Amino acid sequence: MSDCSSVDYSLAAYQYTLPPEAIAQTPVIPRDASRLLVVESATGHQHRQFRDLPQLLQPGDLLVVNNTQVIPARLLGYKLGGAQVEVFLLEQQAPDQWLGLVRPGRRLKPGATIQFGPDPQAPLLTAQVLSTDADTKGRILRFEHRGNGTLYEVIQALGQVPLPPYITDTTASPDQYQTIYAEQPGAVAAPTAGLHFTPELFERLDQAGIGRSQLTLHVGVGTFRPVETNNILEHKMHGEWIDVPADTVAKIQATKAQGGRVIAVGTTVVRALEGAAQAGPLHPWQGKTNLYIYPGYRFRVIDGLITNFHLPGSSLLMLVSALVGRDRLLDLYEQAIQQHYRFYSFGDAMLILPEAVLPQATPI
């Protein structure tokens, strides 16, 4: 089945109605007890649990995960004079400079100073507004800190790990919004498909002969920024930093040479691998990618995908639509709603096996 010959590129075509009670506010415990909607063929699917993954994949398959770590990107400070200011860090642009969203932003013109820390007379951290970023409407901030330690260590001490705005009533702790393999600080949101893994599940996957490799994509505004153009082709992705290391490329090449499948754990892994292969065969790569994947895209690297359920009208929903088709995906979402699946960051997951991928979406 293919709907690429008559793809609907209107934003309205990627909307669906989600009951508020379907938005997961707290993760399940243990993590791998979450539900898993397995898309196993062009027409078939089944309802399983995430801990069933070793039985659903094949020996010789390779899981690729994103080892980024969420930083405490939410800082509460005050403007000179006492007004409270909230800064949400988006991206480090230089050793002492960050792009951040600032509230209230209208009062913080270039030259304004924000202070952070419990003592207004001796702030531990200050940020000067250098300029406004036209793309994100954020501010370029130059930071200075007092005392020992690096700038990041001071930010880590003062900041809070941000949860998505749709999580409004949660008992979750910050470590529950990190994958168990998070090790490269830099993300402002978690690669949520990886939140379901446990050490015990990894051990069972190893015993089943299913390989694993890592890369890094620091989740930023490019991932969670909403699509606001009525024609989705006019949406511009903000660049996000990726590192696809040589050992991961080698494992992918070996997996494919031996007939195994490459299963991406999350849409960020898809964008990193596909971004590193835009100029030709997959190769080790560091830098920014602003790759935007929507229906009609021809995948170059991945064979299947593990992913959570995504917001209506989001670029992530469009990426998954490129694998299985928009109509099929929205029908699967409707069935997930009827079956009381939990949606979004702390919610349940979906496994799209290679047999379910549209013919024109299979890797080159």
Tell me what the structure shows:
This protein is α/β, with parallel strands linked by helices and 364 residues long. It folds into two domains: 4-70 and 172-361, QueA-like (3-Layer(aba) Sandwich); 74-158, Thrombin, subunit H (Beta Barrel), CATH 2.40.10. The chain is built from eight helices and 17 strands. Strand 6 (84-94) and strand 7 form a beta hairpin. The radius of gyration is 21 Å and the shape is globular. Mean pLDDT is 94; it is low at 1-5.
Whole-number count of domains: 2
Q: Helicity level, as a percent range? A: 10-25%
Strand content: 25-35%
User: How far from one another are the termini?
Assistant: 18 Å
Rg value = 21 Å
Q: Report on the biggest sheet.
A: 9 strands, mixed
> Which regions have little confidence, pLDDT < 50, spanning 5+ residues?
1-5
User: Mean pLDDT, nearest integer?
Assistant: 94
Shape: globular
CATH structural class of the largest domain: Alpha Beta
CATH T-level fold name of the largest domain:
QueA-like
Key traits:
single chain, 364 residues, alpha/beta, QueA-like, Thrombin, subunit H, 2 domains, 9-stranded mixed beta sheet, 8 helices, 17 strands, disordered N terminus
Element layout with pairings:
Elements: E1 35-39, E2 45-49, H1 53-56, E3 62-66, E4 68-70, E5 74-79, E6 84-94, E7 97-103, E8 113-116, E9 125-132, E10 139-145, H2 151-158, E11 184-187, H3 199-207, E12 211-217, H4 221-224, E13 240-244, H5 246-257, E14 262-265, H6 267-276, E15 285-289, E16 304-308, H7 315-324, H8 326-338, E17 349-352
Parallel strand pairs: 1-17, 3-12, 3-14, 4-11, 14-16
Antiparallel strand pairs: 1-2, 5-6, 5-8, 6-7, 7-10, 8-9, 9-10, 12-13, 13-15, 16-17
Helix pairs in contact: 7-8
